């Protein structure tokens, strides 16, 4: 058996690519389906979640993603090799309907082997969350922003295209079995290891219709997926939240960010609250002492936290439905080294006294501040069903920065 193809048979390189791809596909699809089923159970508020379940889902997702990226590169290498080789002709080329179907399925398979893992990879790169790809080249992709919109688009495409791949795979296997059992020809044997005695194929009738038919099939699948809401899984989780009322304040916040960072299964997940208000009174004292007061109200449903947003807003964590706001009522104090906000932070109706140290830059009537503190989620009853740090760490980092302007007297 030679390395290269001939007009009658496949070489050992092509056969190796074929069976390696088959092994990877028959591994990655079950992994993805089982991991997705576990993830749906984890975010379902009616199903109790344990550390072991979260860890198992993350493990399966990491395996799925890593094998998916492997398939992408194997598929590219296979396509490049195929372009350099003669393509053994169809043994049933005289049966034009069957030949057309076989060519169309081959186009769907080759295209899906690139599109399915690529769409999943882009979805992974566009979001933040657990279950990293196991390789040393990072988790991002060039030109792919961290964006819920991008993640929703490519997550939907990945879900749709995987079913196109599965359908094409079923048709491909059915065709091979038909050739072997019903037609008794050498089509399947040509791809098996070892030499074969395949006859010279009949004259081939090449056409542009099979690739066009494959494009139509992909388009129909995407349109059908859109109609059933396949692109809605990553929609804004906060679209229906009620905006917080405006507050009267001596200092009006012009812009700012309120972010949190959690560690899940060893990976940092960053998020932020889009809707919060701050009522501030402040006069810079000459000496250390009280400098003012601040009352912050945060809309919990406005949180985005990468791929775990739904889980974070669920009953076991922030429970946004029952506790839609958090608050921080504090006194502002000037210290020897900077400033601190001291007072009770209330989350899920649990109040804990905290100290937020921050840096302050004053320029006339404009103030810029930035500060951070580390909270223990268990102090507020967040994630009580995960009582250790094997899946979600206790520490939650909070980072706040804002620019405020003194109002007119």
UniProtKB/TrEMBL annotation:
It is a multi-pass membrane protein. Residues 250-405 form the Lipid/polyisoprenoid-binding YceI-like domain. SUPFAM superfamilies: Transmembrane di-heme cytochromes, YceI-like. Keywords: Cell membrane, Electron transport, Heme, Iron, Membrane, Metal-binding, Transmembrane, Transmembrane helix, Transport. InterPro entries: Cyt_b561_bac/Ni-Hgenase, Cytochrome_b561_oxidase, Di-haem_cyt_TM, Lipid/polyisoprenoid-bd_YceI, TTHA0802/YceI-like_sf. It comes from the Bacteria. Its cofactor is heme b. The chain crosses the membrane at residues 17-38, 59-81, 160-181, 212-232. It is found in: Cell membrane. PANTHER family: CYTOCHROME B561, CYTOCHROME B561 HOMOLOG 2. Belongs to the cytochrome b561 family. This is Cytochrome b/b6 domain-containing protein.
């Amino acid at each position: 058996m030679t390395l290269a193809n001939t007009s009658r048979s496949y070489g050992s390189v092509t056969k190796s690519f074929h069976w390696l791809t088959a092994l990877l596909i028959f591994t990655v699809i079950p992994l993805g389906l089982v991991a997705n089923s576990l993830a749906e159970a984890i975010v379902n508020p009616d199903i109790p979640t344990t550390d072991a379940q979260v860890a198992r889902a993350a493990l399966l997702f990491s395996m799925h993603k890593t094998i998916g990226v492997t398939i992408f590169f194997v598929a590219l290498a296979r396509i490049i090799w195929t372009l350099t080789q003669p393509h053994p002709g169809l043994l049933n080329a005289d049966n034009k309907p069957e030949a057309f179907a076989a060519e169309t399925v081959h186009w769907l398979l080759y295209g899906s082997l690139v599109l399915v893992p690529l769409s999943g990879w882009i979805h992974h790169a566009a979001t933040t969350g657990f279950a990293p790809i196991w390789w040393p080249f990072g988790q991002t992709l060039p030109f792919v922003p961290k964006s819920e919109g991008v993640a929703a688009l490519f997550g939907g495409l990945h879900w749709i295209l995987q079913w196109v791949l599965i359908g094409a795979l079923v048709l491909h296997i059915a065709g091979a079995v038909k050739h072997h059992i019903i037609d008794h020809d050498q089509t399947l044997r040509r791809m098996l290891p070892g030499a074969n005695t395949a006859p010279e194929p009949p004259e081939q009738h090449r056409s542009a219709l099979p690739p066009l038919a494959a494009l139509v099939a992909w388009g129909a699948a995407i349109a059908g997926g859109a109609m059933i809401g396949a692109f809605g899984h990553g929609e804004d989780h906060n679209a229906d939240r009620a905006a917080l009322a405006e507050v009267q304040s001596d200092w009006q916040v012009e812009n700012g960010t309120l972010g949190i960072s959690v560690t899940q299964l060893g990976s940092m997940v960053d998020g932020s609250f889009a809707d919060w208000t701050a009522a501030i009174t402040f006069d810079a004292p000459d000496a250390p002492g009280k400098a003012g007061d601040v009352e912050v109200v945060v809309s919990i449903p406005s949180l985005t936290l990468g791929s775990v947003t739904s889980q974070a807003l669920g009953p076991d964590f922030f429970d946004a439905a029952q506790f839609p706001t958090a608050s921080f009522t504090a006194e502002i104090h000037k210290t020897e080294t900077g400033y601190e906000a001291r007072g009770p932070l209330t989350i899920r109706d649990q109040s804990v006294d905290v100290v937020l140290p921050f840096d302050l830059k004053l320029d006339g009537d404009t103030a810029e501040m930035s500060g951070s503190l580390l909270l223990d989620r268990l102090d507020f009853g967040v994630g009580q069903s995960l009582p250790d740090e094997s899946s979600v760490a206790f520490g939650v980092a909070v980072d706040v920065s804002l620019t405020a302007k003194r109002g007119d007297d």
